[in-house]
Write a structure and sequence with these properties.
The complex is a heterotrimer. By secondary structure, chain A is α/β, with parallel strands linked by helices. Chain A is 35% helix and 26% strand. Chain A contains 8 helices and 10 strands. A 6-stranded mixed beta sheet of chain A has the order 6-7-8-3-9-10, with helices on both faces. In chain A, a hairpin with a 2-residue loop joins strand 4 (61-66) and strand 5 (69-70). Chain B contains 24 helices and 23 strands. In chain B, strands 1, 2, 3, 4, 5, 6, 7, 8, 11, 12 and 13 form an 11-stranded mixed beta sheet that branches. The two termini of chain B are 31 Å apart. Chain C is mainly alpha-helical. Chain C has 7 helices and 3 strands; from the N terminus they run H-E-H-H-E-E-H-H-H-H. In chain C, strands 1-3-2 form a 3-stranded antiparallel beta sheet. Chains in contact: A-B, A-C. Chain A binds chain C through residues 41, 176-177, 180, 203-204, 207-209, 213, 217, 222-223, 225, 227-236, 238-241, 243-246, and chain C through 2-3, 6, 29-30, 32-36, 39-40, 42-43, 118, 121-122, 125-134, 137-138, 146, 150, 153-154, 156-159, 161-162, 165, 169, 172.
Chain lengths: 246, 775, 178
């Protein structure tokens, strides 16, 4: 088994002593190289699930294992390390640090991981270049468009070559075109072998890019579908123009 | 709902919502108001304290002593009607006796008085009560110097016609007329009925009269009054030199100046620190609340109403804090007033001064409102949208970005972010740094003052007491006899002999003294604090206080007369002379105008292995009433002033910690988002802590960088200029030892650590999800 | 119906050979459609019979005859363009009927309905994927770009599918509550 994320009967209550569960009895595996999408309406527990995978939160019960780390039992510093090297984040609102330049922003995870400044800088430039954002290096996030910022965020997420990229509504604050660019970048990374977990309320987005659709409803895993490459139908089918020309 | 109540409702809702902020303001105001009341009380108290005490006691401008054989009491009382005499106090009988307690003996002026009150020259109690029957006596406090050492409850003997009579001390009082430039005298009060038994041929009765004058109370005015009084009575009726209030004031100058200036300085610093801290806390709070104003504006509040919102949000918690803090300030004030009164040797004044308290409260609230209103004006003028967006994250101008980049250089990223956060809000940072700097300055002063004053006090030579033992020849006895006795004692290494003559300087009402010094004074350790010891004839080392009073300085010359013979002296050195109020000259200089001068005091340096106390006892026993030996065991008790400084320093550290804490907390809250992002990216708790400590550390470092030099400057000013200016003290400042450095560094670290602890803890426990999702 | 109007529409811009008509359609649909040339000619004949198109240029070899829209044809086309689709929303998907039938049973088998809905949901998800894949493929060819008419078409497809998915979610929620 090549599973990066293993969840066994995981529950997470909203507050320690409340009876209300944000997640209830979730069991799932996500394998290396997958592009998994987690969908569901707001309040379905998507963010909680994300936080557990990221090691930002611990389960109330059940086992969450990510990249070999038991999230429930690991120490705070082990989790911090996991967040540095094991996971790369992309957020809806970019969450770049305004007082640092683009380059410095991308360098942060590397520096936190103890990489020397010079080396971190080189790596960051490389990463930006790969995403076609190298010319933005000296600028400040304030001056960038949404699409540019998300690209920087993506570079930041990738700099430590994480096992997993977590994208939380990455296109939510972007126009259609920028959003498509970012998703295409993610798809490209996935094709190159990067495991991606997308969290979104937009089912269209999820199914367009994800191969595995995990549907959450009221904290439970309501559905787990694997999509194949079928390519049934053509554009013409859409508008009802069959080969017969009816 | 009308606009006023809408504003009020929203304001109160805001206060409730931002509990931490409101509590913080409340607490700061509480401490601040207490500290301000304390400082104001102390400032007032140390501002011309002696003058106030003098007026409170209806002190006499002129004290005269009359020979009871030549004038009667009623004669003296008649002088009360002379022009310029505002009041004449009760005329008391007095006699100079030798008080003895064990082997310890010393002169005491015993006065018959029925009670401590009166029209002129009221006395105030330090402890105990007034004598109620025979055998009871009330005394002035032991000055730590002149024998015998007397304390409440102890007994000693006074010679009476029927032999030594025991008197028990039932009260200790402060009498402003007992301390003057001539030194302090030990005075004891008994019931008037006891006086006859204490009077004898060798202890003649005198009359003491204290006059309060109207009109000109300067040296000349007093001289004129004295002339008139003298003219109204039999010539020669005055049996001693007159004592003026100016003499008294100068005499207490050194303690008043020394300790008064210190407390004054501290009080000022506390006020400054509190003002700056409050300003920074409040300004910071306003800046942090931009988003709320934007929302308020969006809801339709006008700029004025927004201002009103702001002011209410700040003023209500502050007001509560002030109301709670005032009583604490009064309590603290009373405590410190008690301490300082002890130091100043003055009666304790009441700490509860309602007008002062109201003024402080009003001033404090004014400061709070101003600190809120000024940034508030800016907030009020912003449009709703810009206020909300500004509130979301601090917008960085080009300048602060560059400053940020500079500060970050070289530091690991997370620490750098902490350091950069200081630059983000320059005004708030400056206010906080200012407040902490003021505190650090005072702490520097406090920690260096001790060693400085210690060293100064220990340097007895510069204030005229380089010897181990002083032997006073009894009046009327032969100096040769004393010399003969002393020459036999092998314990003595060598001695210096002195003789004092009266030196009348034209234009000066009072006579100064000129002391001829024979023997190896410089070998013994005597030296001038400024200038040099005398060498050639006509050179003199002058008492620095007196020099100050007469407006004389190094190099000046003065010509006076000794027994009518002219003597010109040139001042070559100044001494902080606590023993002698005039000039010290070479024996030959004095002998030139007073050839018959005989030594009246012998200053002894003992051999190393000699027990000085035993020696003194033995010499006194051997000498009988030929001489009186006294051991210079005086060690200044710095404990009270150390305690005072320690207490005030604690207040300062508290203010500094609060200032740092508040600024750090506010900064942390503003950067909540960034902190959450960094946490997501894998910043560990330790790194977060490091970031926040760096922030607090940079602030404290900057403050220390300003504060320490400031503190040293303060010390220079207060000790050298302050005390020196006022009293003529000449002090060599600059003792900065390892212990002080350690204390200051420790203080700075404490400020950083304590101020950053709670914010760091909060940052570590931050719930990331909540912050990152909501925008 | 729409093919008829589609060809008419093409011919309002200018004369075209039958072969060109086929080519243009295939271009629009980015080569995803292989239109039968016979069908084109058939449709052209019908249009000519109805007076909506006329031959243009010399009548000659059938294969090379150009056709163009007539006045009448143009008018009809414009009218068709200007008139909004007045037909009621036809829910063509069979799922609606399935659910209706199952729900109207005397004792509805909730588990069965849910299973049916679940299956359909999977199919819809797959459809979304397919649409995305198709669009990507189309973009690979020279004529594809976002914002082109074809992209809009795919968007329509996705939105419709999303709507259907939402409906399924609503059904499931309703059923779970009962």
């Amino acid at each position: 088994m090549n599973a990066i994320v293993v969840m066994q009967n995981v529950s997470r209550l909203f507050a320690e002593n409340s009876g209300v569960a944000a997640l209830d009895g979730i069991s799932l595996d996500i394998e290396r190289g997958e592009f998994a999408a987690v969908v569901g309406p707001s309040g379905s527990g998507k963010s909680t699930l994300l936080n557990l995978i990221a090691g930002l939160d611990r389960p109330t019960s059940g086992r969450v294992e990510v990249c070999g780390i038991d999230v429930g039992g690991a120490s705070e510093s082990a989790l911090a390390k996991h967040r540095r090297k094991g996971v790369g984040f992309v957020f809806q609102f970019f969450n770049l640090i305004e007082s640092l330049t683009v380059l410095e922003n991308v360098m942060v995870p590397a520096e936190l991981a103890g990489v020397r400044r010079g080396k971190a800088k080189a790596r960051a430039l490389e990463q930006l270049d790969e995403l076609g954002a190298a010319e933005l290096a000296r600028r400040y996030p304030e001056t960038l468009s949404g699409g540019q910022r998300q690209r920087v965020a993506l570079a930041r997420a990738l700099i430590n070559a994480p096992d997993l990229v977590l994208a939380d509504e990455p296109t939510g604050a972007l126009d259609t075109r920028s959003g498509k660019n970012v998703m295409d970048l993610l798809a490209g990374m996935n094709e190159a072998g990067q495991t991606v977990v997308l969290v979104t309320h937009d089912i269209k987005l999820a199914a367009s890019y994800g191969r595995r659709i995990l549907t959450l409803r009221d904290g439970r895993l309501a559905d787990d579908t694997r999509l194949s490459v079928q390519r049934t139908g053509t554009a013409a089918d859409l508008i009802g123009w069959t080969a017969e020309g009816r | 709902m009308n606009t006023v109540s809408a504003t009020r409702t929203m304001a109160f809702a805001s206060i409730r919502r931002h509990k931490v902020r409101s509590l913080s303001i409340l607490f700061m105001s509480f401490i601040g108001a207490a500290a301000t009341v304390l400082s104001a009380t102390l400032l007032l108290d140390t501002h011309r304290p002696w003058d106030r005490a003098f007026e409170d006691a209806a002190g006499p401008h002129l004290v005269l002593e009359f020979d009871s054989d030549l004038v009667s009491r009623s004669d003296i009382e008649a002088t009360a009607s002379l022009p310029n005499v505002a009041a004449l106090g009760e005329v008391h009988e007095s006699v100079l006796l030798l008080a003895q307690s064990g082997e310890d003996k010393g002169p005491m002026q015993v006065v018959g008085r029925s009670g401590p009150g009166g029209d002129v020259g009221k006395l105030s109690f330090m402890e105990g009560r007034w004598p109620e029957k025979a055998g009871e006596i009330a005394v002035t406090p032991y000055d730590g110097w002149n024998p015998p050492e007397l304390r409440l409850g102890e007994a000693f003997t006074l010679p009476t016609a029927a032999g030594p009579a025991e008197f028990r001390i039932v009260g200790v009082l402060i009498d402003l007329t007992t301390t003057s430039v001539r030194g302090s005298i030990q005075r004891g009060w008994v019931l008037p009925a006891e006086m006859p038994s204490l009077t004898s041929a060798s202890a003649p009765l005198r009359y003491l009269a204290g006059y309060r004058l109207a009109g000109d109370v300067s040296e000349t005015g007093i001289a004129a009054a004295r002339e008139r009084i003298g003219a109204a009575l039999v010539p020669g009726a005055q049996s001693a030199d007159p004592l003026t209030w100016l003499d008294m004031r100068s005499g207490s100058n050194w303690s008043v100046a020394a300790f008064g200036s210190i407390i004054y300085g501290f009080a000022l610093v506390i006020l400054t620190a509190v003002a700056l801290t409050i300003a920074s806390v409040i300004a910071g709070t306003v800046l942090a609340g931009y988003r709320d104003f934007g929302v308020a504006k969006a809801l339709g509040f006008t700029p004025w109403q927004v201002m009103g919102l702001l002011v209410i949000q700040v003023a209500v918690p502050a007001g509560i804090g002030v109301v709670l803090g005032l009583p604490l300030g009064v309590l603290a004030g009373s405590y410190f007033l008690g301490e300082s009164a002890f130091e100043l040797g003055l009666p304790e004044s009441s700490a509860v001064n309602p007008p002062l308290i109201l003024l402080v409260a009003a001033g404090f609230m004014l400061l709070v409102v101003a600190a809120a209103a000024i940034p508030g004006l800016r907030a009020a003028r912003l449009s709703a949208a810009s206020a909300i967006s500004r509130g979301r994250s601090p917008s960085l101008g080009k300048l602060s970005r560059r400053g940020s980049a500079i500060v970050r250089m070289g530091l690991p990223r997370h620490l750098g972010l902490g350091a950069a956060a200081v630059v983000d809000r320059p005004v708030r940072a400056m206010l906080t740094v200012g407040a902490v700097a003021a505190c650090m300055a005072a702490l520097t002063f406090a920690s260096t003052f001790g060693p400085t004053m210690d060293g100064f006090i220990k340097d007895r030579a510069t204030w005229g007491a380089a010897q181990d033992v002083t032997v006073f020849k009894a009046p009327g006895r032969s100096a040769d006899d004393v010399q003969a006795l002393l020459s036999q004692r092998r314990e003595i290494d060598f001695s210096v002999e002195t003789s004092v003559a009266s030196y009348v300087v034209p234009g000066q009402v009072k006579a100064l003294g000129v002391m001829g010094v024979r023997g190896g004074a410089e070998t013994m350790g005597f030296r001038a604090a400024k200038g040099r010891w005398f060498a050639a004839p006509g050179e003199a080392v002058m008492n620095a206080f007196t020099a100050r009073e007469l407006g004389m300085k190094l190099g000046d010359a003065v010509t006076g007369t000794v027994n009518g013979t002219e003597l010109k002296l040139t001042v070559v050195g100044l001494m902080n002379d606590a023993i002698h109020g005039g000039f010290r000259v070479h024996w030959n200089t004095l002998a030139a105008v007073a050839p018959d001068a005989q030594p009246d005091t012998f200053l002894l340096r003992l051999n190393d292995d000699v027990n000085a106390v035993e020696f003194v006892d033995s010499i006194n026993a051997q000498g009988g009433d030929l001489l009186l030996a006294h051991y210079l065991g005086y060690e200044a008790d710095m404990t009270p002033i150390d305690r005072t400084i320690g207490g005030l320093s604690a207040v300062l550290i508290l203010v500094a910690v609060l200032g740092t804490f508040n600024t750090t907390l506010l900064a942390m809250r503003e950067r909540l988002r960034d902190t959450a992002i960094l946490k997501t990216l894998g910043m560990t708790g330790a790194q977060i802590t490091g970031m926040i400590f760096t922030f607090a550390g940079v602030l404290t470092l900057a403050a220390t960088g300003i504060g320490i030099p400031l503190g040293l400057w303060m010390q220079d000013r207060i000790v050298n200029d302050g005390i020196g200016e006022v009293s003529g003290f000449v002090v060599d400042v600059g003792i900065f030892d390892v212990r002080s450095v350690v204390l200051i560094v420790a203080g700075a670290l404490a400020v950083t650590l304590l101020g950053a602890l709670v914010p760091a803890r909060r940052a570590r426990r931050l719930s990331v999800a909540a912050v990152l999702r909501s925008e | 119906m729409s093919l008829r109007l589609g060809i008419l529409g093409l011919l309002t811009s200018g004369p075209l050979h039958g072969y060109e008509v086929k080519q243009q359609f295939e271009e629009i649909l980015a080569g995803t459609w292989d239109l039968n040339i016979g069908s084109v000619y058939q449709m052209l004949q019908r249009l000519e019979r109805d007076g909506l198109v006329q031959p243009s240029g010399s009548r000659g070899d059938r294969g090379r005859q150009e056709f163009v829209a007539t006045e009448e044809g143009r008018r009809l086309f414009d009218e068709w363009l200007d008139n909004p689709d007045k037909q009621p929303e036809l829910l063509r998907e069979e799922i609606y009927v399935k659910v209706l039938l199952l729900a109207l049973q005397r004792e509805p088998d909730t588990a069965r309905i849910l299973k049916v809905l679940d299956n359909q949901r999977h199919a819809y998800l797959q459809r979304l994927r397919d649409l995305a894949d198709q669009e990507r493929a189309v973009q690979g060819t020279s004529s594809g770009q976002t914002g082109s008419p074809l992209a809009l078409l795919f968007q329509a497809g996705r939105l419709h599918t999303e709507a259907s998915l939402k409906w399924i979610d609503a059904c499931v929620e309703q059923l779970s509550r009962n």
